[in-house]
Amino acid sequence: MRIALIIFIGIHGIIHLFGFLKAFGIYEFNAISQPISKTLGWLWLVTFILFAISIVLLIFQSNYWCLSGFLAVIISQILIFNYWSDAKFGTIANLIILLSLILAYSSFSFKNKIAEERKKLFENSIAVSGEVITKEAISELPSSVQKWLTNNGTIGKKPISNVHLTQELQLKLNPDQESWNNGKAEQYITTNPPAFNWNINTKMNSIFNVVGRDKFENGNGEMTIKLLSLISVANENNSDKVDQATLQRYLAEMVWYPSASLSPFIKWESLDAYAAKATLEFKGAKGSGEFHFDEKGNFKKFVAMRYQDSKKTDPTEWTVIATQTKERNGIKIPVECEASWKLESGKWTWLKLKIKDIEYNVKEMPVPNKK
Q1: Residue 371's pLDDT is what?
Q2: How far apart are CA 326 and CA 140, in angstroms?
Q3: How many domains does the chain have?
Q4: Structural domain that includes position 323
Q5: Bridge partners of 323?
Q6: In this structure, are 228 and 80 located in the same domain?
Q7: Cβ neighbours of residue 18 under 8 Å, at least 6 residues apart?
Q8: How many CB atoms lie within 10 A of CB 141?
Q9: Tens digit of pLDDT for each residue in 296-344?
Q10: End-to-end CA distance of the chain
Q11: CA pair distance 98, 104, nearest whole angstrom
């Protein structure tokens, strides 16, 4: 699409160059039957140059093409109004370019918003104690959790203060969907205070791009989905149900940063030799879920009664299952998972994810690519 847009802008820009050549008698541009003054001829040249600059910036994927492109479209349309009878169809080209500019700016604005949110998240985080975790430190946790932390390599390592990870995803946006939508996601997490910021980029179909951002911060949750980075499809916030749902997500994802199980905000309750219930309470938000492990202490699944959205009256059973576990950065974590809702019509597995990269205790905040 970007290459097609570059070619389209290039052709539209060259037409403006012909207007300049006609004004100075260098070339007879028959598409414009009216004479073009030298003053307006310079405007035709300026418009061509602005479109050319936009192409160069597009090639290098710089967001500044939005500025030069917008100026070019404005001047171009002024020229078209002056030569309306001959040049009116150029308005269609300008509208196509203007729509592309709006979508590009919306994408840039969305990414910039995420970058600012993550900057704030990073600034508000407090480093966890630098002392290594000992068996004594986990002695008061349920036996199943102790076995899990020992098995996954948490003992003898320093606590995790923050996490940066990238994911490859497969999603089904509704229970009746047959094929999977592929997507990529990036997430930044802090453990003190408990918070995360997650963004996704996927496609609804071969044409329409969908972006989303979920976050939990200061005890408040928020879920946003936008079509083409512009049209809001979902915007869930200012709701106790959303606060609880995002908090439970944070709780489930703790299997990627297991030292957070020692957080003072989490209370544990033993269920049996292979399961324990965790309850996280932070700034008015409260949620819980059950962690299940195998006989060796490997994480098997997380189960919680969770709200799908703020409109649902009752919570729904939500399950996250580990389908593959590997060691990353010295800690054994589930690198592939599936998430499902238990609906009245049956099980809806709506997400399959794979951890592509994960970093702990990063010194500098990673930000989304703004290009």
Answers
A1: 44
A2: 27
A3: 2
A4: 131-360
A5: none
A6: no
A7: 27, 29, 31, 44
A8: 19
A9: 999 999 999 999 887 878 999 999 999 999 999 999 999 999 999 999 9
A10: 15
A11: 10
Exposed, middle or buried by CB within 10 Å (0-12, 13-18, 19+), for 157? middle
276 has a pLDDT exceeding 60: yes
Domain-located, residue 366: no
Which position has the token pair 């104690």?
A: 129
User: Is 122 part of any domain?
Assistant: no
Between 240 and 366, the more confident residue is: 240
- 249: tokens are 């997500």
Question: What's the rounded Cα separation, in Å, for the pair 317 and 92?
Answer: 51
Which residues, in sequence order, are CB contacts of 9 under 8 Å at separation 6+?
51, 54, 55, 58, 69, 97
Which is higher by pLDDT, 77 or 208?
Answer: 77
Cis ω for the linkage preceding 334 (within 30 of 0): no
- Tell me what the pLDDT averaged over the chain comes to: 92
Structure tokens at 350: 């709506």
Dist. CA 169–CA 181, nearest whole Å: 8
Q: CA dist 61 to 72, 113, 135, 202, Å?
A: 18, 19, 51, 19
Between strands 285-293 and 231-236, the pairing is unpaired
Question: Does any domain span residue 367?
Answer: no
| Lookup: tokens for 354 | 């794979």
pLDDT at residue 352 above 80?
yes
* Same domain (yes/no): 179, 243: yes
pLDDT tens column, 218-236: 999 999 888 877 776 778 8
> In terms of domains, do 60 and 196 share one?
no
Longest Cα–Cα distance in the chain? 90
Q: Are 94 and 72 in contact (CB under 8 A)?
A: no
* Domain final residue, candidates 83, 103, 123: 103
359 and 163 Cβ atoms separated by less than 8 Å: yes
Residue type, 247: L
Nearest Cα to 36, choosing from 23, 46, 24, 26? 23
Question: Within this chain, do residues 61 and 153 fall inside the same structural domain, yes or no?
Answer: no
